[in-house]
Design a protein that fits this description.
The protein is of the alpha/beta class and 372 residues long. It contains 14 helices and 8 strands. It has 3 domains: 97 residues, Substrate Binding Domain Of Dnak, Chain:A, Domain 2 (Up-down Bundle), CATH 1.20.1270.20; 28 residues, no CATH class; 216 residues, 3-Layer(aba) Sandwich (Rossmann fold). The structure holds iron/sulfur cluster (SF4). The site of iron/sulfur cluster has 13 residues, from loops.
């Protein structure tokens, strides 16, 4: 246990064995989880409020939950646990408010042509996904020679209609969608420092023509058809647009997409899912964690339950492979091998496109085939 939530904290640094106030590690952990949940929820609720969307139920819950932690007298595990679960439920309502606010003000998300590169003269670089901030900045710069630059994570969005057409016109739409999802895995600004639309076009061309394991695609298609609850673990912010192309090829009524609970490197969060329009076609949840990959111990109880319940997990990216490849679970990994260590583990070359069933389930499948 470590708690430094108040000024009574032991030795002025932190209560470790037990709280000076009397709380134990479970209470401390639940209160901490609640505070982190509230912090994230309040940030999104603030975005929604600025777009004119509020909900009295959400506001009342934030006050009640803060009261429960700030007063530090409620050490009842059951009621704290219920409050943590309610925080998750209220957070979904907050995401609905944010979505409504964004769509009312800016319309449904749709791909738009953008200019790339830089131009001579002063400029302001704005990051993040606060559309209202971006709008205000653009208005403030109107009529001046100040250029406004933003990040390129959403560049794939501009190619979405064209790529969708390619999938629809291809012989094997599932395979084309998997190839494009893998292409998205290369658009990783956690690895590269910059990327241009022309780079992405080249990557997509290569991924559409490279050798690929058609047996793995067949096994993947069979697994998708048989699964009743599919959990799709998204990876990076920009590539989530290309993930959407693959998700559209799945039985969407049986698919849940999971994003990160809080920003880490350039991983996709709920805001990225909203910008890609995912909540309009499938259920989207967050994993309650801000760790790269999927470290189940750091994920929320709700997410772990969904992970456990899923009979097929589709895990995008190398981070998810690194953290989940040893699990005894029906997982298909979709990635591009980006480093020698992972390439050796996968038994492939660096840069190879991978669609791979988890080891444990490959073995079971092979045994069943042998028995037949
Ligand atoms: S809230 Fe309790 S456990 Fe936490 S620092 Fe204060 S006295 Fe210690």
């Amino acid at each position: 246990m470590f708690c430094n939530q108040c000024e009574q904290t032991a030795h002025g640094t932190g209560c470790t064995a037990r709280g000076v106030c009397g709380k134990n590690e479970d209470v401390q952990s639940l209160q901490e989880t609640l505070l982190y949940g509230l912090k994230g929820m309040a940030a999104y609720a603030h975005h929604a409020r600025r777009l004119g969307k509020t909900d009295e139920g959400v506001n009342a819950f934030i006050e009640e939950a803060l009261f429960a932690t700030v007063t530090n007298v409620n050490f009842d595990i059951e009621s704290l646990l219920e409050m943590v679960l309610e925080c998750g439920r209220q957070n979904l309502r907050v995401m609905e408010l944010l979505d409504e606010g964004l769509v009312e003000r800016y319309g449904d998300p749709s791909p738009t042509a953008v200019r790339e590169g830089t131009a001579a003269g002063p400029g302001i670089l704005i990051t993040g996904h606060d559309m209202l901030d971006l709008e205000n900045l653009l208005r403030a710069c109107q009529g001046t020679d100040v250029k406004v630059y933003t990040h390129g994570e959403m560049l794939p969005a501009h190619m979405y209609p064209e790529l969708r057409k390619r999938i629809m016109n291809s012989e094997n739409s599932l395979e084309t969608a998997v190839r494009l999802a893998i292409a998205g895995n290369i658009i990783d600004l956690g690895v590269k420092t910059s990327i241009r639309e022309s780079d992405i076009e080249g990557v997509i061309r290569d991924c559409l023509t490279a050798d690929f394991d058609s047996l793995a695609v067949k096994a993947f298609g069979d697994a998708v058809n048989q699964a009743e609850r599919i959990l799709y673990l998204a990876d990076n912010a920009g590539e989530i647009v290309l993930d959407r192309l693959l998700i559209e090829q799945l039985p969407i009524e049986r698919v849940t997409v999971a994003v990160k609970g809080a920003p880490v490197i350039n991983d996709a969060t709920m805001e990225d899912a909203l910008l890609a329009g995912l909540p309009r076609i499938v259920e989207v949840i967050d994993n309650g964690s801000d760790a790269p990959g999927t470290i189940l111990e750091s994920c929320s109880q709700t997410f772990r339950g969904r992970f456990e319940d899923a009979d097929l997990i589709i895990a995008k990216g190398q981070g998810n492979y690194e953290t989940l490849s040893d699990l005894d679970k029906n997982i298909f990994f979709i990635l591009k091998a980006k480093c020698p260590v992972i390439a050796v583990d996968l038994g492939c070359e660096v840069g190879e496109m991978i669609l791979r069933k988890s080891r444990a389930f490959s073995d079971i499948g092979d045994l069943v085939k042998e028995a037949e």
